[in-house]
Amino acid sequence: MKLRVLAVGTRMPGWVAEGVEEYRKRMPRECSLLIEEIPPGPRGKNADVARAITQEGDRMLARLDADLQIVALDVQGRPWSTPELATRLDGWKLDGRDVALLIGGPDGLDPRCLARADARWSLSRLTLPHPLVRVVLAEQLYRAWTLSIGHPYHR
């Protein structure tokens, strides 16, 4: 199974790449973690934010195969504890499909991406910077995997 993180935003700071890579390389081959960056829509002084979100949605949806299990990271989603995430990870592995985890841009995910999602997950009720979300997500996926195999990292 592949865990594909589709995240709006490019040119992340070095600490983001280093943090994500640390957890990505710890994941086993049978549960690999891939990060795919989606170019953001244009934003600026007089930018049309709705159009930017739509463009981001177009780019994201173009990368989603029909047979993927899709999880949208959304502030309005349901919070999952680490044990709940580990249970979901086990279920995803049994399902046999790859999983796409969607991270929107500064204004959130396109409504079409939310509608396409099989689940909506809220990492926190706090507003987190998008670069930090990538690192937290990678760490939590690794932690859930260690919990599911009985590895002591979770303690």
Write the layout of secondary structure elements.
Elements: E1 2-8, H1 14-26, E2 32-38, H2 49-61, E3 69-79, H3 82-95, E4 99-103, H4 111-116, E5 119-122, H5 130-149
Parallel strand pairs: 1-2, 1-4, 3-4, 3-5
Function: Specifically methylates the pseudouridine at position 1915 (m3Psi1915) in 23S rRNA.
Catalytic activity: pseudouridine(1915) in 23S rRNA + S-adenosyl-L-methionine = N(3)-methylpseudouridine(1915) in 23S rRNA + S-adenosyl-L-homocysteine + H(+)
Subunit structure: Homodimer.
Tell me what the structure shows.
The protein has one domain (2-154): Alpha/beta knot, CATH 3.40.1280. Helix 1 (14-26) packs parallel to helix 5 and helix 3 packs across helix 5. The mean pLDDT is 94. It has 155 residues and is an alpha/beta fold. It is 43% helix and 22% strand. The radius of gyration is 15 Å and the shape is globular. It has a five-stranded parallel sheet.
State the secondary-structure class: alpha/beta
End-to-end CA span: 25 Å
Kindly identify the CATH topology: Alpha/beta knot
Helix content range: 40-55%
* Alpha-carbon Rg, integer: 15 Å
What's the mean pLDDT score?
A: 94
- Top CATH class: Alpha Beta
* Biggest pleated-sheet summary: 5 strands, parallel
CATH architecture: 3-Layer(aba) Sandwich
Q: What percentage of amino acids are in beta strands?
A: 15-25%
Q: Which descriptor suits the 3D outline?
A: globular
Number of domains: 1
Binding site for S-adenosyl-L-methionine: 73, 104, 123-128
Main location: cytoplasm
InterPro entries: Alpha/beta_knot_MTases, RlmH-like, tRNA_m1G_MTases_N
Subunit structure: Homodimer.
